[in-house]
Amino acid sequence: MDKLIYLDNAATTQVYPEVLDAMLPYFTQYYGNPSAIYTFAGKAAKAVNEARAALAAGIGAVPEEIYFTGGGSESDNWALKAAVETFGREGAHIITTKIEHHAVLHSAQYLEKRGCKVTYLDVDENGFVRPEDVKAAIRANTALISVMAANNEIGTIEPLREIGEIAKENGILFHTDAVQAFGHIPLDVNAMHIDLLSASAHKINGPKGIGFLYIRKGTKAVPPDSCIETQVQMTYSSFVPEKAPDDMQENTVPELVSEEKLWRDKKKKRKHHQQEQKAPRNPEPKTEERRCKENGEPKPIETRLPSQN
User: Fold this and answer.
1) Which residues pair with residue 96 across a beta bridge?
2) What average pLDDT does the chain have?
């Protein structure tokens, strides 16, 4: 094949040459840890701060509200799980839609299995979420509304401003997965009343493995200690979440991404190691007298058999 005609830019994009040129010096010349305090790290720190400021300006935010992640999926996971954990997992309710990216849908399923209630809204024949449906789904315990900015399969641009106004009126956090919209359409987190926004570089001719989560200042959204639900890409566009498909049951996909399991195992090993450290290396065998003393029992009476001559 002499020339490739690529028609899947909604899935991922080529890194632009100018993007690559801007990145290369930080692999070979200015590779210092941007968090370090020595002079050599200053160039990297400056680049990170400038990138954060540029991203913030693009959505009407301030640099302190931009948190870099490993991509859009991590940002979505962080937004949903942190909002629920802050509210209280057992009593929280989320409103989302049936056409969200699997990073959102799988996170919602993960939370459902742990006591959270989720409402999955339908869309109309053109893929639009009806703001009146969002309003009707609100409960007293609704912690989060999560609606994507633009659909990754049919391209529908959702009415974020109207949904954001509903969320603000009811004191509910509003998250949007803007991975397909960021850099393509205007986004203003203040005008649209967005509290949490996910984005990814590889959709806009940037590198893979980097994204960000916008978190409005004052919003509590601590990174969750949990796995990232996103790995299986389904081929159908409409997802009915009341029952997970057979290939998504508890014992399959999470094995690929079970950071939560790894964290629990690591914690268990650390606890076991600490117990071993506290225990004496060669504990003395307990005598009957010592056992009685520890249990508050009377000291045993020593008896001797008469000697036989």
Assistant:
1) 120
2) 82
Average pLDDT estimate for 247-253: 33
Note the helical H segments in 88-231. 102-112, 131-137, 160-169
The model's pTM is 0.73
CA–CA gap between residue 250 and residue 243 (Å, rounded): 12
CB 66 within 8 A of CB 212: yes
**Which of 12, 16, 144, 138 is CA-nearest to residue 80?**
144
Supply the pLDDT for residue 271. Answer: 66
Q: What share of the chain is helix, strand, coil (3-state, %, to 5)?
A: 40, 10, 50
Cα–Cα nearest to 207, from 25, 30, 75, 22? 22
Q: Which two tokens stand for residue 60?
A: 């009407």
Distance CA 180, CA 150 (A): 6
* 51: region left, alpha or beta (phi > 0 left; psi from -120 to 50 alpha): alpha
Rounded distance, CA 245 to CA 293, Å?
Answer: 61
Task: Give the integer Cα–Cα distance in Å for 74 and 228.
Answer: 7
The whole-number pLDDT of residue 51 equals 97
- How many CB atoms lie under 10 A from the CB of residue 144? 28
Which residues, 6+ apart, have CB-to-CB distance to 190 below 8 Å? 60
CA 75 – CA 203 distance, rounded (Å): 14
Task: Specify burial of residue 103 (Cβ count, 10 A radius: 0-12, 13-18, 19+).
Answer: buried
